[in-house]
Design brief:
By secondary structure, the protein is mainly alpha-helical. The chain has helices at about 1-30, 50-85. The chain has one domain (about 1-30, about 50-85).
Length: about 90
């Protein structure tokens, strides 16, 4: 039963991490998964190009998402194993 509970918790982490990064991208980076064009596409000048600082922040956020998620998962995995009373070491088969 601990096996199933552990992997359900891992699956919940994956769903939560995906939802977090989607919301983060929408709120802080202005990225949207919804189809359609932003309102500025209908203007004659088009959308203004983002500043160099905004482009750098987007790149840093994009490339740091995977390492941050991996670090968070390692901490989450340790907490789940500790919560289920399992040892931190791997069990090896004979």
């Amino acid at each position: 039963m601990k096996f199933l509970a552990r992997y359900v918790a891992y699956l919940a982490f994956v769903v939560a991490a995906l939802a977090f990064w989607i919301v983060f991208a929408y709120v802080f980076l202005g990225a949207s998964l919804l189809p359609g064009d932003p309102a500025c596409h209908f203007e004659q000048q088009g959308c203004p190009k983002p500043s160099m600082l905004a482009q750098a922040v987007r790149a840093i956020c994009f490339f740091s998402a995977l390492p941050l998620t991996a670090i968070a998962f390692v901490a989450f995995r340790k907490a789940v194993r500790r919560g289920l009373g399992m040892s931190e070491t791997r069990s090896t088969l004979p």
